[in-house]
Amino acid sequence: MKGYLGFFLLIAVLTAYTWRDRFDPESVRGARVLITGASSGIGEQMAYHYAKFGGQIVITARREDALKKVVQKCLKLGAKKAAHVTGDMSDPADPERVFRYAVEKLGGLDFLVVNHVGNTNVELWNGDSDHVRSIMQVNFVSYVQLAAAALPVLEASGGSIIVVSSVAGKMASPFVAPYTATKFAINGFFGALQSELALKKSNMSVSILILGLIDTESAMNKIRGYATMTAYPASEAALNIIKAGATRQREAYYPWFHYFTCLLDNVPFMKDIMMSRLSSVYMD
Ligand SMILES: NC(=O)c1ccc[n+]([C@@H]2O[C@H](COP(=O)([O-])OP(=O)(O)OC[C@H]3O[C@@H](n4cnc5c(N)ncnc54)[C@H](OP(=O)(O)O)[C@@H]3O)[C@@H](O)[C@H]2O)c1
Fold first, then answer.
1. Of all atoms in ligand 1, which is nearest to the CA of residue 179?
2. What is the pTM of this model?
């Protein structure tokens, strides 16, 4: 028994040491950043944090009016530069066009934050494979296209790609099968890219953020009537994403305890317990 206690204590100490806050705001002061999906939600909150750190920011999404408002607020908050470019990530031509605009506007790039997400319903999968194909373009293929354009630029600047993913990309989650598929694809692709960059001894980094439920308007609207889980604040999620990217963490979790949720999911009987709880909540 004492042996087990000592083991868990050691794990806890090592975890706390690994996850200690090493963020230095100076490391992002004046940084040149492109944030996708920044007209609302977590992307919008990241824009405000980078602005407070004196960043130079280009934001993108489809809704121009919303982007303009975010740009104005960023300038008020202290951004050294802030601009927007509209783009629709369902159009295969847009990721590269958006990226080129940002690099031209900022004279290079230090952080590419890929965060946008297309709309997908919370429901049992209805057999619509066309939706899976189209959501793959928005949520995954466009991320890869942005990364392809960014690699030479970020290798030159020693910059970083920050990828916003989800617990749904670690645990195959019912009711959001197409979304889950895109997030698994993101984790697989960018995880492999991290390893390839390490093999090449590249000076650029890739950080993957695994988020739990966050209180953005779109997420809250989707889960209404389905789940009673605690949602965590978008502004805090945004700050954690920025910190993980700036400190070059390969993978980070917000809230932190989802690291353990994802570990537990690999224990076969835990999955059965979670599924039986879900079926009593959702299928009654
Ligand atoms: N909120 C959560 O509970 C939660 C949990 C885990 C992971 N995440 C991840 O966190 C990220 C942000 O989520 P969020 O809750 O902040 O989402 P959100 O509030 O719905 O924002 C999504 C953003 O993506 C943009 N977008 C949607 N479709 C687009 C398209 N076709 N082309 C270009 N931009 C598009 C939207 O702007 P326009 O409509 O103006 O285009 C918006 O700016 C996502 O990657 C999501 O998977 C969120």
1. 47
2. 0.94
